[in-house]
Write a sequence for this structure.
């Protein structure tokens, strides 16, 4: 189903152009939303149906709606970019579609076909193209999500689901102004265990991380890093981002998949690094080794990556046992080079050898 298959209902009271322009000067992140949203329904008897782009507005939910009780919910995150030539582009959207399907499998939900996923995003972006900011580092953040909408109380997969996609103009994810973020090591809470939902992008994973994130903020840190559930030693990932480690021999290491989210930015960084002849390992890395390597100088850079923040340097790591600094405490050369290469491709300002940029409209 293409974007042309979506019925369109214009918002009768869109945000005034002058007000929209004021908002786009400094949109922040996740606080302002566009005029429309995409919606598709699913039921056991009809499958996917009733695809439309409509005015963004509140949802009316019965108190017994299944998601409110059993948390059958998944989501994605990707961005639309305004290109220098006036066009519009997405970055690897079919990878988001694939991960959305895999998350649905894990949560016993119906799989949204790739063409329907992509069609919903294209239709929404076309409707709200004027909301794409043009400032440096800005974009239109897209949040596709799906939840169990059946009204019932009983522990079983629901028979009705609602898929939606909303959009929000976005600036920089971190507003601290610091050259690098600080990390708190959670020694009590864990994020995911083998056989759990760590590889699925579901709300429950993030809800479970919030108490540790609150602890990190109380300790003066920007983010929390989780360790494995068995030994509480091996680095997992941050509350919402994957981690990379850069060594003095030029090689890069990142924790292996399994209990962590298969980040699309993560995969892109791996590919770009290998394209440049950098030795990259996907292997376990211990928290005590991280500190020892940082103190000895063997580890020269650490960075986190994800759709929202793209690539973010990590400067300091804190725990109940103390703190250590990575390199100079600011952005490293490898981190900056990979970020520059990635963002240039995303905005069609550099060659795209892997055909990652999806132009439309």
């Amino acid at each position: 189903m293409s974007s042309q298959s979506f019925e369109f209902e214009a918002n009768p009271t869109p945000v005034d152009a002058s007000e929209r322009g004021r908002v786009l000067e400094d949109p922040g992140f996740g606080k302002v939303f566009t005029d429309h949203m995409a919606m598709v329904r699913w039921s056991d008897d009809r499958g996917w149906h009733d695809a439309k782009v409509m005015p963004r507005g509140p949802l009316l939910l019965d108190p017994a709606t299944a998601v409110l009780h059993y948390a059958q919910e998944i989501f994605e995150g990707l961005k639309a970019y305004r290109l220098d030539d006036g066009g519009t582009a997405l970055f690897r959207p079919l990878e988001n579609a694939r991960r959305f399907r895999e998350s649905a499998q894990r949560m016993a939900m119906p799989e949204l076909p790739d063409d329907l996923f992509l069609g919903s995003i294209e239709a929404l972006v076309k409707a709200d193209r004027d909301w794409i900011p043009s400032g440096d580092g800005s974009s239109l953040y897209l949040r596709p999500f799906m939840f169990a909408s059946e009204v019932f109380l009983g522990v079983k997969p629901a028979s009705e689901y609602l898929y939606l996609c909303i959009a929000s103009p976005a600036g920089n994810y971190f507003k601290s102004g610091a050259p690098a973020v600080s990390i708190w090591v959670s020694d009590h809470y864990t994020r995911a265990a083998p056989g759990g939902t760590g590889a699925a992008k579901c709300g429950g994973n993030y809800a479970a991380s919030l108490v540790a994130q609150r602890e990190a903020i109380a300790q003066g840190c920007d983010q929390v890093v989780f360790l494995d559930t068995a030994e509480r030693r091996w680095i997992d990932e941050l509350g919402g981002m994957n981690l990379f480690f850069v060594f003095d021999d030029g090689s890069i290491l990142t924790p292996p998949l399994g209990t962590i989210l298969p980040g699309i930015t993560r995969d892109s960084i791996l590919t770009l690094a290998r394209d440049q002849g950098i030795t990259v390992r996907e292997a376990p890395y211990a928290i005590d080794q991280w500190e020892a390597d940082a103190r000895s100088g063997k580890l020269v850079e650490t960075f986190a990556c994800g759709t929202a923040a793209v690539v973010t340097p990590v400067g300091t790591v804190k725990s109940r046992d103390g703190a250590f600094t990575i390199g100079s405490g600011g952005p490293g050369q490898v981190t900056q080079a990979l970020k520059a290469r990635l963002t240039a491709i995303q905005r069609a300002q550099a060659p795209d050898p892997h055909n990652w940029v999806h132009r439309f409209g």
Notes: The longest strand covers residues 160-170. The two ends are 16 Å apart (CA to CA). DSSP finds eight helices and 18 strands in the chain. The CA atoms of residues 26 and 289 lie 40 Å apart.
